[in-house]
Amino acid sequence: FEAEEELKDLEEEIELRTLIQNHDDSIYSMAREIHEFDFHKDISHWTDFLNTTLDSKSIYGIPVSRTDFNSLRAGENVFSSALDSDDILDRLRTLAEESDNIQGFKVLVDLGGGFGATCREFLTHVTDEFPKKSVLACCFHNQTPSMNKRDREIYFISASHSLNSIRSLSSVCIPIGSYHFHETYFPHIKLNPNNLFQTSSIFASALDTLSLAYRLNDRSGYDMSALCRTLSDRSYSMNICGLSISFPFPLDLDRKLEDAFDDQKPIYAHNSIRRLTPDIPLKEEVDPFTESIVLRGIMPYFKPSTRYLNSIQLLSDLTKRNPCPSRQCVLAKQALTLPPSFPQYFLPNVSLYGNILPQTSINHFGKDVVSSPKSNIKVPMPFVKCLSCVTHLGAFKSIGCHLDFLVKGIEGIDARRFDDVGLEKDELLETKNNLKSLVEEYLQ
How far apart are the first and last CA of the chain? Predict the structure, then answer.
């Protein structure tokens, strides 16, 4: 059986190398026919971007206007009114009953405004009804440089209080933000950091990849609760983890795989890794306390080498590069598949299958093109169908820098000046003291 699998992998690799290295004309013909999406006109909601149909019983629409939902009090009130009819929890119970085995709950929440308070109230009831299930909370920061002083102070009050509350109700909490992105932040991507569809596509790719750690059906028994235990093994209170991604991971079919993992660096220090958690150093200088590493789409690129003969040797080498008392590492064969609606912000040297091509890109009639290695024909670069990527999720010392940023943001703010936010002075003081204690715990 293993021999058959190896033969199948070899056949797939030969086919892949042929397609990419020969720049098959049919591929480019197909690429030219793909609809070019105008993300400002064709897509208006995140459900459009996901190209997903959601069942009505899994959606609860908040019956307030956007301007009314900027305070913590608004978030609390909305959930309380919904709780009177038990509407939200009834939807949750229905979905839970239809599930054979719930691993846990993955929550995505905007920390600014009322959503943080709504999430806190919701998780309070979730943890009461499902006390043994894990909660993986992804908390999004949405502050912008254009905020005036008052809006910025309100944001820091809401974000710091919500993060502190949600962290205490979660197994693992992951702060994420894009306000530190710039056009060339990611190698091989020309990014518009103000385009939400572009930034959200990177977040979605990272979350889809890191969740492979518990979604793969590999009979290992490793589920969401095991992942959360791995990441919070250092301390129950130190459950805030930083997320990073290599997108795409720089693979070249003309090079040996070992060359992609250069200088014997650990994954978190790889040259292509970029932080999705804001307000922490771009490069870590201290090994993480805990970590989860997922490498996807790497398998077809194994070539004969003196260092890696198989995936086991690769994983063994990567885990030896830095000591970590609690670690989980996954090597998934599946590459990240990109739907036609995915933003095509990749540079011209990124191939159809996400490889980094050595050819020099030029501009031809206003379109990015690449020279074929076997002719002088210039053809438009194709739509990128899939790519390899790597995520790193871990509890780092530098998480203290992120928390310290929030502490400094609420330093000196008198909550009584912001009655409309819905937070008392004592509550803000308690939030600040809790975050300060966490800063000391991470940075010690």
Answer: 51
Quote the CA–CA distance of 252 and 353 in Å, as a whole number.
Answer: 11
- Vertex 207, ends 57 and 354: CA angle to 5°? 125
Instruction: With CA atoms as reference, report the closest residue to 413 among 96, 159, 240, 213.
Output: 159
The answer to whether residues 111 and 403 touch, using CB atoms and an 8 Å cutoff, is no
The model's pLDDT over 291-314, given as tens digits with 9 standing for 90+, comes to: 999 999 887 666 666 777 777 788
Alpha helices in 87-180 (DSSP H): 87-97, 114-129, 149-169
Write the DSSP symbol of residue 220: S
Nearest to residue 436, comparing CAs of 397, 410, 403, 402?
403
**C-alpha to C-alpha distance for 345 and 337, rounded to whole angstroms:** 15
Task: Classify residue 341 by its DSSP letter.
Answer: T
In the Cβ-directed half-sphere of 6, how many Cα atoms lie within 13 Å? 8
**How is residue 240 annotated by DSSP?**
B
State the pTM of this model: 0.84
Instruction: State pLDDT tens for residues 130-141.
Output: 999 999 999 999
Spatial CA neighbour of 175 closest among 440, 411, 435: 435
CA 370/CA 364 separation, integer angstroms: 9
Q: Is the peptide bond before 248 cis (omega within 30 degrees of 0)?
A: yes
Q: C-alpha angle with apex 216: 350 to 255, nearest 5 degrees?
A: 30
Q: What is the pLDDT of residues 191-214, one digit of tens each?
A: 999 888 889 999 999 999 999 988
What does R_g of the chain's alpha carbons equal in angstroms? Answer: 23
Alpha-carbon span 439 to 444, nearest angstrom: 8
Distances (CA, A) of 129 to 59, 124, 126, 132: 20, 9, 5, 9
The Cα-based distances of 19 to 317, 337, 358 in angstroms read: 30, 17, 16
Q: Coil, strand, or helix at residue 287?
A: coil
Structural tokens at position 258: 């070992």
Residue position matching structure tokens 């009130």: 77
Give the largest Cα separation in the chain, rounded.
72
Span of 297-311, 312-326, 352-366 with lowest mean pLDDT: 352-366
Q: What is the pLDDT of residues 371-399, one digit of tens each?
A: 444 444 444 445 788 899 999 999 999 99
Spatial distance between the Cα atoms of 84 and 240, rounded to a whole number of angstroms: 33
What number of other Cβ atoms are within 10 A of residue 414's Cβ?
9
CB contact at 8 A, 157 and 415 = yes
Length reported for the chain: 444
As a whole number of angstroms, the distance between CA 11 and CA 299 comes to 13
What are the structure tokens assigned to 19, written together? Answer: 């397609």
